[in-house]
Amino acid sequence: MQDIENKWTEVEQAIAQEAFEKAYKREVSALVEQVRARSHGLLALEDLWNLHDFLSAKRHEIDGKYDYDYSVLLFVFANLIKDGWLHLDELKSLNQDKFAKVAALTRL
Amino acid sequence: MQDIENKWTEVEQAIAQEAFEKAYKREVSALVEQVRARSHGLLALEDLWNLHDFLSAKRHEIDGKYDYDYSVLLFVFANLIKDGWLHLDELKSLNQDKFAKVAALTRL
Question: Which of B15, B52, B72, B83 could make an S-S bridge to A55, C-beta 3.0–4.6 Å?
Fold first, then answer.
């Protein structure tokens, strides 16, 4: 199983990178929209500090999540699919074992 | 001089509290406007993290500044005047010595 995770052909690397960037762009763009929407309702200092807390949490989450590392990439993909930022079929051109592993992980 | 800072009649306390709250409301309302305006220009993740850094700094600054403590209130007032959140004439009903001290501090 370790082989599946550590051996990435150039073609697979390109597919993985594209999928990773797609998920990243989708999540960032949803987050930007969310912050814009929240900012319309800003009235009091408490709202600003709530926004600040929200951004602190998101920054921590995103910085951790989008660490591009092939040894954990199948797990990262499974989580991105579970969170709705990636579709399983966007990984269908990966090697069959990798695809099967990601599919299995999304069902955990 | 210590007496001036520590002795506050009930009337002076009411004047001080009103001035303090006015400054606070002005600064908060300007900050809310500033964050709303910034949020219209949000495009990328970097903009969100810049906003996050800005809110972190403002939170730290405001939490420290609006500590209502009579022993340092004349200094706080002088700083609020220098920053434009309070007008010196809003303190004109304070005891003459206090008013003179704040006026002097704003010129430092």
Answer: B52
Residues A5 and A62: beta-carbon distance below 8 Å: no
User: From CA A25, how far away is CA A85, in angstroms rounded?
Assistant: 9
Say if the Cβ atoms of B39 and A44 lie within 8 Å. no
Give residue A102's pLDDT band: very low, low, confident or very high (50, 70, 90): very high
Q: Interface pTM (ipTM) of the complex?
A: 0.79
Where in A37-106 does DSSP place strands (E)?
A: none
In angstroms, the CA A7 to CA B50 distance is 38
Tokens representing B67 are: 């500590």
Cβ atoms A52, B57 nearer than 8 A: no
Distances in Å between the alpha carbon of B31 and those of A8, A54, A94, B59, B99? 50, 18, 49, 11, 28
Which residue from A35, A47, A49 is facing B42, i.e. has the nearest CB?
A35
**Inter-residue contact A92 to A99 (CB < 8 Å):** yes
Chain A nearest C-alpha distance from B57 (Å): 10
Global confidence as pTM: 0.82
Q: Give the residue extent of every domain in chain B.
A: 2-106
